[in-house]
C-alpha cells in the first residue's frame, strides 16, 4: 500500500516487488540500507525480509498460532507499521 501511495501508477502486486521498489526505485529510497532494512552486498539478512519470514514461518495460512506467538506477531507488526507510517508522513510533509 505504501508503494501505491507513493507511486499510484505502479501496479505492485507482491511483497518482494514492493521491497525492491521501496529500496531501489524511488528517490530517496523509502527503505533504508543504512538500517539494514533491505539486502545489500554487506547485509545478506535484512530486517524487512526477516520480519516477513518470522511473521509467516509456515507460509501464508499456517493454521492457529499459540497465544504467545500471536501476541508477539501482533505487537511487532503494530510497532513496525507505526514506524513506517511515521516515515511516510515525514516524507510527505
Defining key terms:
93 residues; mainly alpha; 55% helix
Brief summary:
The chain has 93 residues and is mostly helical.
Biggest sheet descriptor: none
- What oligomeric state do the depicted chains represent? single chain
C-alpha-based Rg, rounded: 14 Å
The global form is globular
End-to-end C-alpha gap = 18 Å
Strand content: under 5%
Q: Structural class, from helix and strand content?
A: mainly alpha
Determine the number of helices (DSSP H or I, runs of at least 4 residues): 4
How do the helices and strands follow one another from N- to C-terminus?
HHHH
Low-confidence segments, given as residue ranges, are: none
Helix content: 40-55%
* Total DSSP E strands: 0
Look at the structure and give the mean pLDDT. 89
Question: Would you give an account of this structure?
Answer:
The longest helix is centred in the C-terminal third of the chain and has 26 residues, at 67-92. The chain has helices spanning 2-6, 15-25, 47-55, 67-92. The two termini are 18 Å apart. With 93 residues, it is mainly alpha-helical. The protein contains four helices and no strands. Helices cover 55% and strands 0% of the residues.
